[in-house]
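User: Sequence recovery, please. Input:
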């Protein structure tokens, strides 16, 4: 009689430690604090990754975050490690919330993935992303980032059931259902995504019901010589509003091994047509649930990253509102201090007409100048196999400039 061998269990325990320091330099307006504001954030993310042979994988992340001083710039700028997200099961806690100090935590990943031949089934808290674009992401319908998020290493996890079926060399079909705030249609997301490759071109199609809206989307990614070209588009059909379109076209070029340029043009037909309507649009449900972060209709995004020295990298980007001429411009300088330590420093500049009384003159003119400093420290340690368990202890805190694709 033959017995099936027990799956080899491999467990990895590691963690990320990040610190952020913000300084906001307000302009004179009732919207703004009267004086510059500073804020410090320390975030520890503990991670457990267990592989049960080729049968299943368990991934658990729990973050503990301490915040000092008040909220900066009304929540316009974020770190990517702070935020409130829908939870079907409450796995968050607050230990301290007194004066200018808060301490709390959240389980941001808790997902079990089983491998059933060509199909993977994942149940639990997990990130969900679709599409090819980086700055403007019309197909990223669950918890998208915006460029004012300084660190985008971890996309927020949502409670979901997901199945991925693979076929051929690069074919994939994904079906997902996610909790987005409630158990009725307005609080759920259901989507089916299919993608395949023809030559050097990747094609994708999305069908979904997002918070009671019917959504049809498509994606394309290809290359023209040395230039990568991509496009995403989504048509949304709400039950009680007009149909609207969100679409982006982008290109990426590496003129040299140490230099990267890319740009994106974006359209959203439901945006406000003039600054007088921005405030009302910003108070809409789509803004409140994070589905949208832009107030206008047409935008251009540009970014350049340059390695100045083997340990020094600089980047500059701009998100431009084509309707009112305002722009959000982030500058970042990253320094690899040693093999296990890095520092990133930079600033965000909001350019455009400042608000007059309670009337907005431009979108990004609303943003104050905000400077930031982010640190990273890493340490790796490997221990021997004990009773069939391989334990790897690691501390790492990758940083980003806010323009890495959220994956």
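Assistant: Recovered sequence (407 residues):
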């Amino acid at each position: 009689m033959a017995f099936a061998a027990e799956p080899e269990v491999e467990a990895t325990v590691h963690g990320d430690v990040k610190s952020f320091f913000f300084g906001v330099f307000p302009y004179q307006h009732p919207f703004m604090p009267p004086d510059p504001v500073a804020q410090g954030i320390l975030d520890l993310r503990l991670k457990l990754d267990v592989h049960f042979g080729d049968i299943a994988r368990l991934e658990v992340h729990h973050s503990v975050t301490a915040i000092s001083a008040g909220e900066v710039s009304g929540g316009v700028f974020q770190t990517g490690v702070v935020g409130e997200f829908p939870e079907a099961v409450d796995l968050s806690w607050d230990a301290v919330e007194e004066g200018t100090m808060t301490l709390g935590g959240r389980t941001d990943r808790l997902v079990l993935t089983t491998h059933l031949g060509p199909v993977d089934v994942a149940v639990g808290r997990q990130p969900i992303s679709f599409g090819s674009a980086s700055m403007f992401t019309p197909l990223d319908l669950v918890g998208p980032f915006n460029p004012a998020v300084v660190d985008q290493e971890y996309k927020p996890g949502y409670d979901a059931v997901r199945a991925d079926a693979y076929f051929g060399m690069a074919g994939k079909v994904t079906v997902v259902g996610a909790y987005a705030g409630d158990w009725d249609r307005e609080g759920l997301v259901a989507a089916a995504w299919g993608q395949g490759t023809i030559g050097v071109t990747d094609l994708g199609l999305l069908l979904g019901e997002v918070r009671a809206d019917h959504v049809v989307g498509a994606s394309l990614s290809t290359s023209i010589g040395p230039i990568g070209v991509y496009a995403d588009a989504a048509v949304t059909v709400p039950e009680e509003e007009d149909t609207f379109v969100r679409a982006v076209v982008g290109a990426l070029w590496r003129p040299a091994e140490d230099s990267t340029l890319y740009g994106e043009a974006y359209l959203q037909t439901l945006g406000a047509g003039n600054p007088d309507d921005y405030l009302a649009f910003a108070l809409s449900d789509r803004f409140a649930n994070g589905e949208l972060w832009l107030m206008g209709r047409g935008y251009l995004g540009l970014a350049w990253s340059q390695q100045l020295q083997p340990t020094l990298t600089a980047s500059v980007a701009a998100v431009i509102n084509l309707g009112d001429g305002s722009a959000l411009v982030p500058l970042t300088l990253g320094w690899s201090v040693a093999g296990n330590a890095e520092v990133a420093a930079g600033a965000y500049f909001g350019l455009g007409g400042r608000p007059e009384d309670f009337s907005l003159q431009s979108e990004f003119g609303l943003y104050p100048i905000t400077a930031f400093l982010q640190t990273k420290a890493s340490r790796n340690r490997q221990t021997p196999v004990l009773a069939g368990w391989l334990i790897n202890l690691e501390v790492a805190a990758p940083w980003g400039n806010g323009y890495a694709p959220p994956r």
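The longest strand covers residues 9-25.
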